[in-house]
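Team,

Forwarding the record for the chain on the shared tracking sheet. I've put the sequence and predicted structure together so nobody has to dig through attachments.
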Amino acid sequence: MTRKPPVPVDPQALDAAAVARSFGRASRSYEPAARLQQQVRDELLSRLNVLRERPARVLDLGAGTGLGTLRLKQAFPRAQVLALDSAPAMLAQVRRRSWPWRRLHTLAADASRLPLADASVDLVFSSLMLQWCQPPDRVLAEAMRVLRPGGLLLLSSFGPDTLRELREAWATVDDRVHVNRFVDMHDLGAALQRAGAVEPVLDVDRLVLHYPDALSLMHELKSIGAHNVNAGRSRGLTGRQSWQRMLQAYEGLRGPQGLPATWEVVYGVAWAPAAPVRHGPAVAGESVVSAEQFAANLRQNRR
């Protein structure tokens, strides 16, 4: 019996299962280490002023531990706010912030297969989640599908210059993939258009954080679940000699404030079209929740 040759794997493709496991393990260490994530989330929240009317239903897509979910509930206290994440351990942290008078609802699901009905959400808010979904097309298509006509999508994502110093330091050691690679602004804009988004507007910010040493940066990446999850990553331990060569290369970039680490952040604002977006039938075995069911389920959860 002739065996088919294995399908080649893109070494820079993200391992979705590894992403979910990584963020699940980081659920308790995430918040103290997520200083950049807080800054980006605050900036994205400041863009809520583009809303044309107050939303009745809000989806925090890739909610993590729910700090953004809580801010959204505070901004729209009468809205039904749903935190969705692929890591149940993260959602457990969201539920710790929920109180009878300030209910935060949670849903463990894949962002590329949202178990929500067409046109059932007024606002989709997604801060630093989309970079873990490559290519982003399916997630953006799903966001457009669940948004009501004229609904708003607010997103932020990492761009390709993110952690370029660490990537360059590893490049002096070998040609393996040691640092995640992300989609640039132009490709993200094209993906939004393919998803049917109206009037997408994107801009880029580059932030440079400084660390006392490379190990501090690596520890922070592990604490927030953002370490290497590419399919082409090494599955074994990195040799001591290779590790020391990388550290030495990175040390060559040291400045008065320490070792620099660049974070390229892409912000996006887009509207759902006037007519509902449909991207084909649901996947076999997939369930969806109608707008009425969504509201009924949330009322039931309040009891």
